[in-house]
Design brief:
Blueprint (H helix, E strand, L loop, with lengths): L2 H29 L4 E2 L1 H5 L8 E8 L5 E3 L2 E7 L4 E7 L11 E8 L5 E8 L8 H20 L7
Parallel strand pairs: 1-2, 5-7
Antiparallel strand pairs: 2-4, 2-6, 3-4, 4-5, 6-7
Length: 154
């Protein structure tokens, strides 16, 4: 084998190795990718069923029900509400009326089963996705309120 062919074989082997490594890394990244959805997006069926995603919003007042380590609560963006079930210990900062992000899967009956619940870490912080979802829901609520004029027959 000529030196030229040896160099081409080595370069080809290196390129193939890099391509395989890149493919494995991208595959691992794709399988661990988790998207964020608001309750309004979930109700609009934009969120996947039977796939893991993050649901974010505010814990609805009066919705928290505890039974040992099983907790059921509702997450709202002021426009829509999604019921969540979680088994485990909640973060210390988890409270009604506060921001929350739950990671899990949406069941066919509409119940979101969370595997992880994250609460905001101080009184001023909210995940950017959750803050944006709340702003969008407020805009939608305002538009709906403005289209129905008071005193008009319905």
């Amino acid at each position: 084998m000529k030196p030229r062919h040896k160099r081409l074989a080595i370069i080809g082997g290196v390129v193939a190795s890099v391509a395989v490594a890149a493919g494995l890394v991208l595959n691992a990244f794709q399988s661990n990718l988790v998207f964020f959805f608001s309750p309004s997006q979930v109700v609009a069926k934009e969120a996947p069923t039977a796939k893991t995603f993050r649901l974010g919003g505010m814990v609805k007042e009066g919705s928290v029900k505890r039974n040992g380590t099983e907790v059921q609560f509702a997450v709202t963006d002021t426009a829509q509400t999604i019921n969540v079930k979680y088994v485990g210990i909640l973060p210390d900062l988890f409270k009604e009326g506060k921001g929350v992000v739950a990671q899990g899967q949406l069941q066919s009956d509409g119940l979101f089963v969370a595997r992880e619940v994250l609460a905001k870490h101080d009184e001023n912080y909210m995940p950017p996705e959750a803050a944006e979802a709340l702003k969008q829901a407020k805009k939608t609520n305002d538009k709906i309120a403005n289209t129905v004029s008071p005193g008009a027959p319905q």
